[in-house]
Design goal:
2 copies of one chain form a homodimer. By secondary structure, chain A is of the alpha+beta class. Chain A is about 60% helix and about 15% strand. The first copy, chain A, is built from 5 helices and 3 strands, in the order ααβααββα. In chain A, strands 1-3-2 form a 3-stranded antiparallel beta sheet. In chain A, α2 packs across α5. The longest helix of chain A is centred in the C-terminal third of the chain and has 26 residues. The radius of gyration of chain A is 16 Å and the shape is globular. At the A-B interface, α1, α2, α3 and α5 of A face α1, α2, α3 and α5 of B. Chain A binds a DNA duplex through α1, α3, α4 and β3.
DNA sequence: GTATAATGCCTCATATTCCTATGTATATTT
DNA sequence: AAATATACATAGGAATATGAGGCATTATAC
């Protein structure tokens, strides 16, 4: 089973940052990493990923550079910046907060 | 602090069903209930709520009926159906699954 | 008494964000 | 030689929450 689109919305950034916090990766590698770590649950589409990477680079959350390979083909590598690390912490906290509140409503344990 | 729009996406239905699983409510009451139970975190806008209620009624997840008050003014009350209860269970399970997988990625505890 | 806020229902235009489809190109496997 | 996997990129369409607006009644504050 894979992640419902509606729930994925808004979480692409935190997923990408989490991957890059581990080590620098290129786009396709990020997709594979998320796929493998979640056992197929998060299979991010390229049409989702690349626009995100471009925006995140513009926002200085990540830094891209071209890396040539012995084979010849160049790949675009990305690494997380210090801005990106801060943002990752912020998004993680935001997520925890969201989870706490949603659980509270689903469990009906508080309120009037 | 209130819930980020992007995270709320896809969770409106489960929030509404959770409220109505407690007791029948009218639209405005649902907003107030969610607001109070989450201490202001989930403040669903009416532009979000009412289209959802109409769609959910059409999908037989909830049932609406007009209730007149001593004052004279009518209010539209909604109650959850058995379909709605099933759907609530399904969405709760889906949410738990999503949370499990996102946590797994954020904590970087599994995978290659 | 009258203005203001709160209650209560509803719709539409807009922004955001993900997906599908498509295009290009190289490397590896069968 | 063909099929698949790797790798980057963009355009068009679909879904969905928000903001702004409209309408009407009731309670509260001045």
């Amino acid at each position: 089973m894979s992640a419902p689109t509606e729930l994925l919305k808004g979480n692409a950034t935190v997923l990408i940052l989490s991957a890059l916090a581990r080590e620098p990766m290129h786009g396709y590698g990020i997709v594979k990493h998320l796929d493998s770590i979640s056992e197929g649950y998060f299979h991010m589409r390229e049409g989702t990923l690349y626009p995100h990477l471009h925006r995140m680079e513009k926002d200085a959350l990540i830094e891209g550079y071209w890396k040539s390979q012995t084979g010849g083909r160049e790949r675009r590598m990305y690494q997380i910046t210090s801005n990106g690390t801060s943002e990752l912490f912020r998004l993680r906290a935001q997520w925890n907060d969201f989870h706490l509140n949603l659980t509270r409503v689903l469990d009906q344990k508080a309120g009037a």
